[in-house]
What does this fold into?
Amino acid sequence: MSSALYALGRWAARAKWLVLAVWLLLLAVLATGALTLGKGANAPITIPGTEAQDAITSLSHTFPEVSGTSATIIVVAPEGDDLESDRYRDAVLDVADELDPLPGVSGVLTPFGTGEAAAANTEISPDGRALLMRVQVEGEMTSVDDVTIDGIAAATDALRDRLPAGAEVSYGGEMFSAAVPGLSPTEAIGVVVAFVVLILTLGSLIAAGMPLLIAMIGVGVSIAGLFFVTAFVDLTSTTPMLALMLGLAVGIDYTLFIVSRHQEQLRAGLSVRESIARATATSGSAVVFAGLTVIIALIGLAVARIPFLTALGVAAAAAVAVAVLIAITLTPAVLSMAGMRILPRKHRPTAVVGDDGEGSSAEPIVPEQTRADRFFAGWVRGATKRPVITILAVLIALGVGSIPALQLRLALPDATSLAVDDPARVTHELTGEHFGEGFNAPLLLTGSIISSTDPLGLMDDLKREVERVPGVAEVPLATPNQGADTGIIQIIPEEGAHAASTTELVKELRSHHDEWEDKYGVSLAVTGFTAVGIDVSAQLMTALLPFGIFVVGLSLVLLAMVFRSVWVPIKATLGYLLSVGVAFGAVVAVFQWGWLSEVLNVSSTGPVLSFMPIILMGVLFGLAMDYEVFLVARMREEYVHGGDAQRAIQRGFVGSAKVVTAAALIMIAVFAAFVPAGDPSIKVIALGLAVGVFVDAFIVRMTLVPAVLALLGERAWKMPRWLAKVLPSFDVEGEGLAREIEHAEWPADMPNARVASEKLTLRGAGSNVQARDVRLADGEALVLDPRDAAGLPLAQALSGRGRIVAGTLKVDGLLLPERASSLRARSAWAGLDTLRQALRDAPTLLVLDLRSAELAPLSPAAVSDARSALAAWHVDRGRDSAPPILVVLGGREAAERLLPDGHTAVSLSPEHAERLDPAGHLDRIELEGAR
It folds into this structure.
């Protein structure tokens, strides 16, 4: 990974204007597509397959009058007025006539209508002061025509003008229960705070502006792409806002990590281009890993098997992926444009021209220890001085902070989450005040009655059954449809949609399904907007456990790959769970208990957004792994470069704490900016993330982690050998890259060798084998005897397929095992029968396996065909390409017969191979990258 990113960083620095042009062109293309083809992110929150959702879908075909969505207009008369007077009656009926022709309106129900226009569920309140008008609209609430929405608002104003002074009229209902999220000036405060933090961290306006600029371009690409995708896929209104929030936060942070490392290396004396390449390789590797953890966790939301949540997770993951890609491509390009100006003026040395044509320091700059360095040095000393006390204090504090999470309740947002003066919120509260909260949460019981010979009598019988169910306040409607094949029963609960009693009522009604089916022959389903919300919340709560197992298991595996340790992943995962617990606790305290509700502009308290926990867990997991990687990777880097465990903790902490602190503060600022004036669906997620990032970065990663590592000592960096062999290595610290740079001019005795090895030990068949040193020049073919214990393992290693235990091997300029994957892509392995097929892709290296040819002499025809194929292989590569490398696994005599003219056979004799015991000393000094 680090080697590939090193090459990418060098290329992007050279092709800086091309890289910038490609990203700007992509932004322009996606923005054009979004503006011309995008349909907007307004899909409803549904879960196909649940009882409530399936019943609503069925009603849209059998009973369209009660399917779709609805709006409510409430009229509250002044004290002493008679609602049934002609003035009120005429005004209401006139407005009903004006509403009826609006697009999509299938019916307007009032207490004063006749026949189908009159319904018991649109009655006058028990106190005689309020009446309701129901406007039934076809389709889902997010697809209602703007003309209809504006028409309902205008009709409400007209009704208010026609009624006596003091009469209160407001519109709302299901159709207006959710607002479309939008940006507000408050979100810009987060960007301003981020800019201030960047200036303090990087010390330069150019350096501070770069992460913001690059993150903005990335966010623009992401959001434009999402709205373009809405031409083909339905997305909820929360999706682009979450993608914006995440893309902005991680985009700034990821670029910050690379820019900070670049500045550090420039001060150490590296040239601009070399520093860009190395920063992209080292910090870029950590960025890729951190981004992958966020992406995998977000895509893991599919574990819940809820379509809208899966789409939301994939969209947010796409925004993070764009942030990663733009960080490792556009950042090197822009850094190349900035040159030495990326450093504060006082740190810019007198520039000299390096070999790459870029400016570099005449000599390394060693800045004085800053006040921040001294502060963080004291922090880590305090955390590790008495690690047991630190660990216990953190566990107790975070445990107490997690206690409110035990009372977490979930629900979909309704009108109570809107602003206090929003008409839908006013209507909701007036309805609850005059009719009871249950009128804001009606349920529908529906089923097929096609087999009934007395539909009206059947519906009356079912109505009486339902009225006896505990929790039912009223059953205002029980009727068949016009075709008498479907019946509906409207049920008014005693309390509102978010009340626990309403959830219990839904369960109780469903528990009578079998009883009523046996008694009346009707299979009844509970549905309605309230029931859908209850089903969504229940399924999301059920999905928390499998998703939590997925995330925890993922973190253990990924961190074990990165840190080659058992204890580091365990403590990182436990720390993540503590952060999640405190984040949930803060959400409950603010949004359910009402703590700081006025300060944070929380308009009402109650159950929190249903999909908040699973999204918060996924996103916070990725962000927590960011800080774990950037902080602990620096500690491990100090350790593997020869430092003792305790000193590595302190040096690594001081070296990375400043950047981690800045990154965390930026994230907190961005998330917190969405809380005061944010959409209700976004602000609860934003608050949880802001608290979670604060706790995870400053308490868990920067306090608990050093204490745990200090307590573990050397054991923190150990891993069982069997596990090290199973898990692939993810070189985040750039150890492999450092080794490649060190061997750039190796071997000194033959720098242009096509193949070179030294003190090479390979994994053979059940044992380790030491191979003879190799130097192979252009025009030479290496012949390996299959009887030699090192023959086959060396052939496998030369093609990038074998395992190197110790020593140094370089093939075609690629150092192994670091570049084994690149070598595999360039190499081929073939016998005589598959030779021509293997050469079609013009590999750089070919292993010609002649072991089967040893059993029978080669025919003249086979030899001639092989020679011509190999000769053509050399010619086809062209004059500008390096000559290909030929490795023959077979006897020297057969190899010499097959070699094209002008080639020399270089043979390794069996007597030079030394067999080593599997438990020998070489096994104990295995290369880290070879695992």
In short: Residues 747-930 form a domain with the Rossmann fold fold (CATH 3.40.50.300). The chain is about 55% helix and 10% strand. The longest strand covers residues 472-480.
